[in-house]
Amino acid sequence: MKTTAVRAVLMYLVLIAMAWCALAPILWAVSGSLKSEGEITDPAPIPAHPQWSNYRIVFEMMPLVRMFANTVLYAGAVTAGQVFFCSLAGYAFARLPFRGRDALFLAYLATLMVPLTVTVIPQFILMRAFGWVDSPWSMIVPGLFGSAFGTYLMRQFFLTLPTDLEEAAILDGCSTWQVYWRVLLPHAKPAVTVLAVLTWITVWNDFLWPLVMIQRNDIATLTLGLVRMQGQYYTKWPLLMAASIVVLLPLLLLYAVAQKFFVRGIAFTGMGGR
């Protein structure tokens, strides 16, 4: 009994320490966003005179509303494409028997070992050949048609579904497409939610690809806006922290809404450490 209590206390202490490591930078940024430039080095967590006007000044300095709309457009389009094509490929690898299926899946999965920086130059050359440099298409098309990780995630979930579902659907006269679209995909909402949230966060936080492809402010993303707020010799850190909080809030809201499905999807796809 005593050993169990000690183990529980240690576990909670470890969890509290991990939570603090994750939350401390965010709390520090919130505190800094409410300070004046003279107080930015003050270690006090709560400023004596909160500068709420920093958030208003941020929207005056940069077209954050337009950048927010651009980022939502890019993230929404890529997320929709990833969910559709990854779920379609995952269904094929999980349910449809064809020659070389497992070898092809392993080869596709091996692309996860290729660093992102290796593919930047070939993708840039392709975008330039299509004439899409410095255009919204360069932000949408490269990530639209699925990914190895998303396909793996959906395949693992489809493998957990009982075969009775599709057998009953086939007996009722459903085609392969109808089995996927009407029977299995509605049961894959947890995995779809996980893939959608992870894809949205990835596109939302992406910096390297927009930096390479976008020059104009009217199609820039929020991450580019944050970088362009940094001066070469002098940076207004309270304003930069305020802008960072503005960029972070939609992600926190998204995760709060999708948390239930997110945790359930991680558990069902076999990625919960079981």
Explain this structure to me?
It is built from 13 helices and no strands. It has 274 residues and is an all-alpha fold. The chain folds into 2 domains: 1-51, no CATH class; 59-268, MetI-like fold, CATH 1.10.3720.10. Helix 1 (2-33) packs antiparallel against helix 13 and helix 3 packs across helix 10 (189-205). The longest helix has 32 residues, at 2-33. The radius of gyration is 23 Å and the shape is globular. The model has no long low-confidence stretch (mean pLDDT 88).
Round the mean pLDDT to the nearest integer and report it.
88
The name of the CATH superfamily of the largest domain reads MetI-like
What is the number of helices?
A: 13
Based on helices, strands and strand pairing, what is the structural class? mainly alpha
Along the chain, the helix and strand elements come as: HHHHHHHHHHHHH
Number of self-contained structural domains = 2
- Indicate the radius of gyration in whole angstroms: 23 Å
Envelope shape: globular
The CATH class of the largest domain is Mainly Alpha
Strand content: under 5%
* Parts with pLDDT < 50 across at least 5 consecutive residues: none
Biggest sheet overview: none
CATH topology of the largest domain: MetI-like fold
Q: Total strand count, please?
A: 0
Q: Architecture of the largest domain in CATH?
A: Orthogonal Bundle
Share of residues in helices: over 70%
Spatial gap, N to C terminus: 26 Å
